[in-house]
Amino acid sequence: MPSDLDDIALAALFATPPGTLYLNAASHGPRLRSVQAAAETAVAAGIAPWRLGEEEWIASIEHVRTLVAGFFDGDADAVAMVPSAGYGLSLAARNLPLSRDEAVLVLAGQFPSNLLPWQQRCAETGARMVHVQRGYEHSSHAHDWTNAVLAALDDDPGIRILALPHAYWHDGTLLDLDRIAACAHARGAALVLDLSQSLGALPTAIERWRPAFVISVGHKWMLGSYGLAYLWASPHWREHGEPLEQTWFAREHDAAMASPLRPPRYRPGARRFDAGGIAHAEKLAMAAAALEQLHAWGIENLRDALQARTAAFDTVLREHGLDDWITPNHAPHLLGLRPPAERLDAVAKALTEAGAVFTRRHGQLRIAPHLQVTVAQMREVGGVVVGSVQQS
Ligand SMILES: Cc1ncc(COP(=O)(O)O)c(C=O)c1O
């Protein structure tokens, strides 16, 4: 675990305005100074667009692709760039086979970007949606999504697609994707993962999970800009998938520019899924700076450093008997704080007065720090929560 001094040095890498305890990386990642500088340089360079050569431009796209691949299985051919998670999930929903007597499994309350595309596809095909509830009848723990998913798979042999996260967006409850993937594959079902709330904070295990598609936004734990998201496609879909839209960008460039009578070949690998407009100089520059920093930290070190922050907060609450307020076995970087309903306003008010920024939704406060908050500050945040109880 880094010392307090290391923590202060880490926090200094971020441009977050002083006086703010930003605990909302699950909404939008905090801005690294290096990302801010890259954005400013790219905007300044935009006054002379002719100076950025085409080769340099393509190289900057491929650089980001390679950096993103490092969070999956290291294969840049597997990665495409798309504008949003919803776009990537719509692409997955459009491609995966699904018929009338089959079903798509999602978690109840799942983020709409990983729900709407499946609802649409089911409406078109006549297939069913299976909304898994926590505390499913066969599951012994109210927070246990994993056993709820496994029980639903056992109950419903029609499930063909599982569209899941690694960490639940409300409160960071983790899903055991190793167990779920093994069970899904044994039944011939495809796995689609929305890792928007974990990529850049938790390692992935593509070889074990064997997903069909993986999607993540780039502006949360990946610390980049809004409007650039990442898609990983399995070898099968890289060869056989159809993009959502037709752009010259996804085709062999020179051939496409010759305005042929028939469409030229797609570019290799998942590049066929690259969306129009993603090669945006400022967004690419910001992504590259963010991804370089994430790789320099190393995903395991980063996970542990984020864990140290949430653990410091949890410890203070536990010392005061408030264990029940914290999501059990939450992800290292993300938790839900669920005070009794009559205390929620007081806790939220105390945190806001202390300068904390967080999301309040579904009767809980989502606490999602990044490295711009020190472990010592997270202890203080825990103290604010405890203090609000003692005052009331
Ligand atoms: C789990 C999850 N998926 C996706 C998104 C974003 O999706 P989109 O890029 O479609 O807005 C969010 C949050 O904004 C999220 O929490």
TrEMBL record:
InterPro entries: Aminotrans_V_dom, PyrdxlP-dep_Trfase, PyrdxlP-dep_Trfase_major, PyrdxlP-dep_Trfase_small
Pfam families recorded: Aminotran_5
Species of the source: Marilutibacter alkalisoli
PANTHER family: BLR3095 PROTEIN, CYSTEINE DESULFURASE
A single GO molecular function term of this UniProt record: transaminase activity
Record key words, sorted: Aminotransferase, Pyridoxal phosphate, Transferase
Protein name, entry field: Aminotransferase class V-fold PLP-dependent enzyme
The organism's place on the tree of life at top rank: Bacteria
Residue ranges constituting the Aminotransferase class V domain according to the UniProt record: 56-328
The keyword Transferase belongs to this UniProt entry's keyword annotation: yes
